[in-house]
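wait is this the right file?? whatever heres the structure
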């Protein structure tokens, strides 16, 4: 039977102002220490957190169940030097169910359009060197840069995902995948200012089905050639209003 860790019980506050990063990381640490499957529950509210890196551990059955709106700091200068917000690295058997991740990227987009010296943008959800990952029903809003990045992973399924950003948002690819195998993207709606799905080098066994794109630049292959005969396959992917 799964054990549940509620981030509110660990100190998180859904007021949109209190930094709840430590509560999320404490829930992850407790889940990693559990001998049973674990659920990290995020109840309704707006939870502010900075960079949170969830690193691999011995528990290969951890579920984030998010009924909330986690938000990045509106001041883009305060996010640390990690590339992703949040990031999962070297994890196995993680599910991220539901939730609305708000990267609050509008301020940084304006800075970049002005030509000022701006800090490096961050991706919203990063999956790196991870296996057997399930992401159903997640929404990503207003990422500073790419919304979801899958890098060096095996067997990742994104289903019912929603991505939304202004058509003027710079370099906000919806989903970027590279150096990964067995990635499935299904029943997903992407509205953004750049590529809806971008595919980098080393992508094999990629399946894309029923992805509605627009506004956005469609599905782009950012490689000169496919490195195997099992490159991307897609079906039922309309592109609208680019």
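ok assuming it is, sequence goes like this
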């Amino acid at each position: 039977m799964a054990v549940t860790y509620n981030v509110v019980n660990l100190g998180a506050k859904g007021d949109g102002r209190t930094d709840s990063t430590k509560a999320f990381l404490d829930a992850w640490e407790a889940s990693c220490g559990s001998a049973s499957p674990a659920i990290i529950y995020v109840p309704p509210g707006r939870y502010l957190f900075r960079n949170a890196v969830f690193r691999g551990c011995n528990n290969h059955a951890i579920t984030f169940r998010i009924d909330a709106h986690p938000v990045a700091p509106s001041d883009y200068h305060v996010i640390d030097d990690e590339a992703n917000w949040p990031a999962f690295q070297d994890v196995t058997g993680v599910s991220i169910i539901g939730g609305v991740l708000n990267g609050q990227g509008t301020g940084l987009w304006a800075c970049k359009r002005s030509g000022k010296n701006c800090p490096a943008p961050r991706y919203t959800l990063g999956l790196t060197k991870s296996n057997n990952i399930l992401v159903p029903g997640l929404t990503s809003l207003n990422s500073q840069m790419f919304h979801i990045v899958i890098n060096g992973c095996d067997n990742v399924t994104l289903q019912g995902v929603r991505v939304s950003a202004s058509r003027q948002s710079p370099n906000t690819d919806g989903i970027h995948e590279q150096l990964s195998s067995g990635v499935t993207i299904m029943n997903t709606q992407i509205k953004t200012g750049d590529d809806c799905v971008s595919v980098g080098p080393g992508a094999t066994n990629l399946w894309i089905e029923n992805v509605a794109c627009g506004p956005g630049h469609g599905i782009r292959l950012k490689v000169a050639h496919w490195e195997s005969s099992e490159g991307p396959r897609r079906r039922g992917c309309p592109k609208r209003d680019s």
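Residues 225-229 have pLDDT under 50 and may be disordered. so i think its the right one actually
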